[in-house]
From TrEMBL:
Residues 6-90 form the Large ribosomal subunit protein bL25 L25 domain. InterPro entries: Rbsml_bL25/Gln-tRNA_synth_N, Ribosomal_bL25/Gln-tRNA_synth, Ribosomal_bL25_b-dom, Ribosomal_bL25_C, Ribosomal_bL25_long, Ribosomal_L25_dom, Ribosomal_uL5_bac-type. Keywords: Ribonucleoprotein, Ribosomal protein, RNA-binding, rRNA-binding. It comes from the Bacteria. This is one of the proteins that binds to the 5S RNA in the ribosome where it forms part of the central protuberance. Belongs to the bacterial ribosomal protein bL25 family. CTC subfamily. This is Large ribosomal subunit protein bL25.
Length: 215
């Protein structure tokens, strides 16, 4: 497995004003932490980071000040309005130590239950796994072709992958197919129908008593 390399540089300034100025130059702030070492404030070119991100990798080498550290992309903050990366957290890792992280689940195929009129619900979009950094999958692919009406796939039924352990609850539902709920058709006559107003004729003495209350 080829590990990609991201060039970064140390930054000494922090705060919203400094970060805004940094982003104006096409760079994004980042933090490298973990493994009982000091946190390091970094910055890197946004386009270079996005290019690596689009490869689907979660692990990379971060280089700065003649140093090279293996790290995991732990968290990314986005500005969804302008579709830009705001900040990145990198977690130091040892290539020989297993790591825990969440990876996306992708469904493959067309469910037989859907063909029979059912509705497919993708309940679990990502899953927590444990593996060596060099074995991190881009995604977990789950085939749903044979998933029938009223059936579900649980974590314990996910495909076994060498070197990967599923940490999420084994009984948790990943995807299911259920019967579509039919909505009752409302006829034009029902829409136009008005409720019947029932008026009770007051008993003798009630009418005068009610009139007195309004005075």
């Amino acid at each position: 497995m080829k590990i990609l390399e991201l060039k970064a540089e140390k930054r000494t300034t922090k705060g919203s004003k400094a970060v805004r100025k940094l982003r104006m130059t096409g760079k994004i702030p980042a933090m490298l932490y973990g493994h009982k070492q000091n946190n390091v404030m970094l910055c890197m070119k946004e386009d270079e980071f996005v290019r690596i991100l689009h490869t689907g990798t979660r692990m990379l080498y971060v280089t700065y000040d003649n140093q090279k550290e293996s790290a995991l992309i732990k968290e990314i903050q986005y500005d969804h309005v302008v579709d830009r990366v705001l900040h990145v957290d990198f977690s130091r890792i040892d290539l020989d130590e297993r790591v825990k992280l969440r990876v996306p689940i992708e469904l493959a195929g067309e469910s037989v239950g859907v063909k029979e009129g059912g509705v497919l619900t993708h309940v679990m979009k990502d899953i927590e796994i444990e593996c060596l950094p060099t074995s991190i999958p881009e995604m977990i692919k789950v085939g749903v072709t044979d998933l029938g009406l009223g059936k579900a796939i649980h974590v314990r039924e996910l495909p076994a992958l060498e070197g990967i352990r599923y940490i999420s609850d084994a009984e948790a539902v990943v995807v299911s197919v259920h019967q579509a709920v039919e909505k009752k058709a409302v006829t034009e006559e029902e829409l136009l129908a008005e409720p019947e107003v029932i008026v009770r004729k007051p008993k003798e003495g009630e009418e005068s008593a009610e009139a007195e209350k309004k005075v």
